[in-house]
Design goal:
It is a single chain. This protein is mostly beta strands and 135 residues long. It has a single domain, classed as Metal Binding Protein, Guanine Nucleotide Exchange Factor, Chain A. 10% of the residues lie in helices and 30% in strands. It is built from 2 helices and 9 strands. β3 and β4 form a beta hairpin. The model has no long low-confidence stretch (mean pLDDT 92). One of its GO terms (biological process) is protein repair. It comes from Sinorhizobium glycinis. Keywords: Metal-binding, Oxidoreductase, Zinc. This is Peptide methionine sulfoxide reductase MsrB.
Length: 135
């Protein structure tokens, strides 16, 4: 989805570790995940924008958020198709579509084809990979 011609933000592991909490680093830089029903923003109801915790890129709007019951914040569409990049994830003996921030390559979560209309997609995100900016 992301434009391959856009130059990604580059930082060393030392720079990322200095900027992020250990949990943010584990999830965004080491492709980790938070336990279901434990992350921030799962029950967030305010209007606003969810941004990448690493670089601040706007990723999702609150009006695309829905309660999927999966234990992670879920959205049916990114704020802009250029905001995220998709990758094949073959870990854990399955094939899934990983999503990352298009600007800094931060691991955000996965997208599944079982979401609501109008897209039919469920972007399942680690809340720890995001910040929230209220309108």
């Amino acid at each position: 989805m992301a434009d391959a011609g856009v130059r990604k933000m580059q930082k060393t592991d030392t720079e990322w570790r200095a900027q992020l909490t250990p949990e943010q680093y584990r999830i965004t830089r080491e492709h980790g995940t938070e336990r279901p029903f434990t992350g921030p923003f799962l029950n967030e109801k305010r209007l606003g924008t969810y941004r990448c915790v690493c670089c601040g890129r706007a990723l999702f709007r609150s009006d695309t958020k829905f309660d999927s019951g999966c234990g992670w914040p879920s959205y049916f569409a990114p704020i802009d198709e250029q905001a995220i990049a998709e990758y094949v994830d073959r870990s854990h003996y399955m094939v899934r579509t990983e999503i990352r921030c298009a600007d800094c390559d931060a691991h955000l979560g996965h997208v599944f084809p079982d979401g609501p209309p109008p897209t039919g997609l469920r972007y399942c995100l680690n809340g720890t990979a995001m910040t929230f900016e209220e309108d």
